[in-house]
Amino acid sequence: MTGTLRTAGFDGETLEIIAFRLHDQEFCVKTTTIREIRGWAPSTPIPHSPPEVIGVMNLRGTVIPIIDLAHKLGMKSTVANERSAIVVAEVHNMVIGLVVDRVSDILTVQGSQVQPVPEVTASFDKSFAEGIIANESGMICFLNLSRMFKERDVEELAA
């Protein structure tokens, strides 16, 4: 190791991110993928939907799928409450709602602050994460929604 800090390829960029919590962990995504943040509202379940799909909701006349983001990330499912939020994002030209425990902050970070996700094991799939941001309050996992929801997966959610 040479002592230089490896970055995740955002050098020279200024990134606007929205940070949110799932259980006791902090995650973030680029604000450019976010349409709005809504308070928790129950959704309508859909029979035989994928396990991460909680249901659908009406967003100003458009029915959108609501995703349990914790479950999608391999964590214990989120139990929604009055502090929960739905982060409405656009991925591959489709609008989806992501249930999070709570939205923490909107931040501006320098690309050089985003460090690569370390290799854990050979079978570890780190494709959902752009990198890790270390700040004074802890670590934030920077998610890549377009890799998390592949185009064909989003098309199936819409069906």
Automatic annotation (TrEMBL):
InterPro entries: CheW (IPR039315), CheW-like_dom_sf (IPR036061), CheW-lke_dom (IPR002545). Pfam families: CheW (PF01584). Residues 14-154 form the CheW-like domain. CDD domains: CheW (cd00732). This is Chemotaxis protein CheW. It comes from Sinorhizobium chiapasense.
